[in-house]
Amino acid sequence: MTLGTYFDYVILPILTLSVLLVFIRIAKGPSVVDRVVALDVMITIGIGIITIYSIRQNEEVLLDVAIILALIAFLGTIAFSYYIEKQKDD
Amino acid sequence: MINIILGILSTIGALSILFASIGLIRMPDFYLRLSVTVKASTLGVGLFLICAAIMFPDDISVTTKAIAIIFFLIITAPVAAHMIARTAYITGTPLWKETVIDELHGMYNQETHELKSDPEDAQEDNDEQTDSANGQIADNEEATQ
């Protein structure tokens, strides 16, 4: 069993299952902050999937996308928490 | 040899991400979900990026990018988790019904969102408890005399 088939048949299915589980929490989360945290985790798992895919395809350019996704996850969480907190005041 | 190292690192990373998402489903409370999830997912993605850095040994730009992403994740994930937990506490997300202690109770000013950490400011909220504690001490002194 080579490393490529191990990535294809073990690691990527585990990550896909993780994204599905996180999506259940996004769909049914009781409050908004639950959904924000689940979205943050989903983007973080997306960074992992992009990294594994760039290893498999020998395309190291795809890591730039991972940098931008990390930035967007941080800014999204900060913006969501800022505006949810402001919403309480009104 | 390098293949074995890569397999071990990626397996640990995938399992920690899987445990993070299982914890996100199974934990009973928002705060427990937050504390389980953020650390485990950051660890998993960091191990994947170390795998990528080992996998492309010729190109130094890949190593630089991987280290940059790991550094950025480790810096920003606790800040984002702290911000969203503070927002959740201010907006009144309920705690788990078996939570033992809520040390922030009465410490936040609900209008200005300032955190009082001075014990004398929080004294007014705890007057009844301290009174009962003083009463108990007085009772004990009487009993010893």
TrEMBL record, chain A:
Claim: Ribonucleoprotein is one of the keywords in the record: no
Cellular localization per UniProt: Cell membrane
One Pfam family per UniProt: MrpF_PhaF
Membrane topology term: Multi-pass membrane protein
Keywords, ordered alphabetically: Antiport, Cell membrane, Ion transport, Membrane, Transmembrane, Transmembrane helix, Transport
Transmembrane segment boundaries: 6-24, 36-55, 61-84
InterPro entries according to UniProt: MrpF/PhaF-like
Superkingdom of the source species: Bacteria
Keyword Cytoplasm: no
Family per record: Belongs to the CPA3 antiporters (TC 2.A.63) subunit F family.
NCBIfam families found in the cross-reference section: PRK12599.1-2 (NF009243)
Protein name, per record: Monovalent cation/H+ antiporter complex subunit F
Organism from which the protein derives: Sphingobacterium populi
Automatic annotation (TrEMBL), chain B:
Transmembrane helix recorded as keyword: yes
Domain of life: Bacteria
One Pfam family matching this protein: PhaG_MnhG_YufB
Statement: the UniProt record of this protein carries the keyword Membrane: yes
TM annotation in the entry: 30-54, 66-85
Record's compositionally biased regions (Acidic residues): 120-130
Keyword line: Membrane, Transmembrane, Transmembrane helix
Annotated region (Disordered), positions in chain: 111-145
UniProt xrefs under InterPro entries: PhaG_MnhG_YufB
Name of the protein in question: Monovalent cation/H(+) antiporter subunit G
Name of the gene: mnhG
